[in-house]
Protein: Cysteine-tRNA ligase
Amino acid sequence: MLKIKNTLTGQLEEFKPIKKNGVSFYQCGPTVYWTQHIGNLRGMTWGDLIVRVFKFNGYDVVHVRNYTDVGHLTSDTDEGEDKMEKGAKRENATPQEIAEKYIKIFEEDTRALNLFEPSFKPRATGHIQEMIEMVKKLVDKGFAYSTDLAIYFETSKAKDYTRLSGQKLEENIAGAGIGDMNDPAKRNPADFVLWFFKAGKHKNALQHWPSPFKSPLVENGEGFPGWHIECSAMSKKYLEESFDVHMGGIEHIPVHHTNEIAQSESANGAPFV
Structure:
């Protein structure tokens, strides 16, 4: 019998896969604007250990580990500068060139550590359409709303929004980020961005795409995805609406992982994990 610590319940629980003899595993991967430090690579090694334990116990494992190459702001919330743009400015390069450079270095590191190759290694910038579709579904279902500057997820409408972190909603506000301080239309400080319009503090964004969303400040809904929606869209594409195991940094439990659960379950109408 294989038992795993469930962060949601805080209990050691018997592992029961959704599909017999198979394990679907999503691991939040690196933001590729800089080299990964030893702590980052420790997390990748733990992910590899999880895969090896499942395989040793006879399971077929589908392991997805993404690359974040847009939308991850320096605060880990909705504040600050896009990390990819920060890297591009530092090296006088494009965000795409920065991503290619540091993905190559990261994969050299993982090979040196003898880590298994994931089944899929999706890049956020390669899945913009999937993100737009999920945001549109959240808007259509009443879980998200638009301002001139962004599309926000309305946290007050999510079922048990803070159940993963154990915080009260008001305690989560400090970690959620306030988006653009000049956005008077934001309804709640805890609401988080699904799609940034190329406006306000992001009017000079280096990476942006057209979208069906409307703002009087931009043409064709130009903008870029928020960090949290990226993992939700990519996990759904490669592992369906519900999967067995999710892994990421412990520091992301109160914000990133909490937001993944909220938006995924609201959009899909199914348990995230």
Notes: The beta strands are 3-6, 11-14, 22-27, 60-65, 144-146, 150-153, 192-197, 223-225, 245-247. The CA atoms of residues 3 and 13 lie 5 Å apart.
